[in-house]
Design goal:
Helix content is 48%, strand content 9%. β9, α11 and β10 form a beta-alpha-beta unit. The protein contains 15 helices and 10 strands. The chain is an alpha/beta fold. α6 packs parallel to α7 (158-183), α11 (279-291) packs across α12 (310-337) and α13 runs antiparallel to α15. The relative contact order is 0.10. An 8-stranded parallel sheet has the order 8-6-4-3-2-1-10-9. A two-stranded antiparallel ribbon has the order 5-7. The chain is globular. The chain binds 3-O-methylfructose in linear form (3MF) and magnesium ion (2 copies). The site of one magnesium ion has 7 residues, from α9.
Length: 395
């Protein structure tokens, strides 16, 4: 890593609103058909390592750190107090908490199952997560419904399931309002996260767009408190253009939180480190976000590969992911102020001159030469990405 160069200092890294999830560092490399390749590791070590690297924020699922049977009990608050101490000791803040509503057998039919007792339990889990979040000083709660889906057709009634799912989000928001008032804290930003497939066969809210429609459906009692946590790869998985998805979320005023990673279209959720597969697309994504004033949180929801050792997780995986992100973010700033891109964009927006607006041929002629600038801009973006705009050439 030191031979590679191009690293930022922990102080510089801390200036960005980048969070490291508990689950990403704790991931042992297991998968369907694949055994773990790394040992178990707890929150104290992860928070300490994040502090050393300069990852300023930590995020967690409730059950990443609290055993299911301890949730809501005294044992939970003892663990939360120990987490608070770790965070203080290592100079890291907790930015986000999320309720795990997918792993345990209780979620076999999802958090919005037909059985009322499952739905009551789901409400308990999201409300308890709000409590844990306020205790740890977070600003965000995320909900990836995981199994909000089904394997066979016709057995569940989709509209009822969606209503029941809204009931859980409503319970979280109502509880948040009450708790925030008691604690004299602002309410949390509640963020929905979509994923198109995996693990279920069909998913009720498979994309960020479907979640925007859900927020606007009238089912939520506090739609203003609810926004999105899009994940870059989750949108690529269904074949979308992540930047176009983010544009739609921005227009709706719902970009609250963003899971950053990389991977491939129409494949599984491989959660590769940001920028390792699609660096040009990532540059373009960050140009959009920077130019619309979105400054984070950027949540490193990736999985260090199974081939990376435990040592490598903290020496290579996390620092290199953070540094690629920072480089791409700074490059995005360069794109925004690049005089050539600006001149080309201004020319495109100015159009080809006043012609008769009813004359298709005249309008086409006025724009024909201008439209070459699209390709020129794309060339310039690649130049910036590869450093060619600074005079770098290959022979
Ligand atoms: C699954 C995910 C989840 C969510 C997490 C946050 C394990 O593909 O992306 O990470 O991000 O549950 O709510
Ligand atoms: Mg995610
Ligand atoms: Mg993912």
């Amino acid at each position: 890593m030191s031979a590679c160069g191009g690293s930022y200092s922990p102080e510089t890294r801390r200036k960005y609103f980048i969070s490291g999830p508990q689950w990403a560092a704790a991931y042992q490399g297991q998968a369907l058909f694949h055994a773990p390749t790394r040992p178990e590791i707890g929150f104290d070590e992860i928070i300490r390592k994040y502090g050393e690297i300069g990852i300023g924020y930590w995020a967690t699922h409730d059950t990443d750190v609290i055993p299911t049977e301890a949730l809501g009990k005294d044992a939970q608050w003892e663990i939360v107090a120990r987490i608070g101490k770790s965070l203080r000791d290592h100079g890291v803040k907790c930015s986000m908490v999320t309720a795990e509503t997918f792993h345990h057998a209780v979620w076999a039919a999802g958090p919005a199952a037909e059985a009322p007792e499952v739905r009551e339990y789901a409400k308990f889990r999201v409300k308890n997560t709000v409590d844990v979040g306020h205790e740890l000083g977070v600003g965000f709660a995320v909900y990836w419904p995981g199994s909000l889906g089904y394997y066979v057709q016709g057995a569940i009634e989709e509209t009822s399931t969606l209503r029941w799912y809204a009931d859980a989000i409503n319970a979280a928001c109502a509880h948040d309002i009450e708790t925030a008032q008691k604690k004299g804290r602002p309410t949390l930003k509640h963020c929905l996260e979509a994923k198109p497939f995996e693990p279920q066969a069909e998913i009720l809210l498979p994309t960020s767009d479907s979640m925007l429609a859900f927020i606007a459906s009238g089912l939520l009692t506090h739609p203003e408190m609810v926004g999105l946590n899009p994940e870059y790869l989750h949108e690529l998985m269904w074949g979308a253009a992540p930047r176009a998805v983010l544009a739609r979320v921005l227009l709706a005023g719902k970009l609250f939180h963003f899971d950053i990673n990389d991977g491939y279209r129409l494949k599984h959720d491989v959660d590769i480190g940001v920028g390792l597969v699609n660096p040009l697309d990532w540059l373009n994504v960050l140009v959009l976000l920077r130019s619309h004033g979105y400054n984070g949180p950027f949540n490193l929801d990736f999985k260090p590969p199974r081939t990376t050792s435990q040592f490598g997780v903290f020496e290579v995986s996390f620092p290199s992911a953070v540094d690629r992100f920072i480089t791409l973010w700074e490059m995005a700033g360069e794109v925004i102020s690049d005089p050539i891109i600006k001149e080309a964009t201004d020319a495109l927006r100015a159009g080809g001159g006043a012609v008769d607006a009813r004359d298709a041929e005249a309008v086409t002629r006025a724009n024909r030469e201008l439209l070459t600038l699209h390709e020129l801009i794309a060339h310039r973006l690649v130049q910036i990405l590869l450093g060619l705009h600074r005079g770098r050439t290959f022979f």
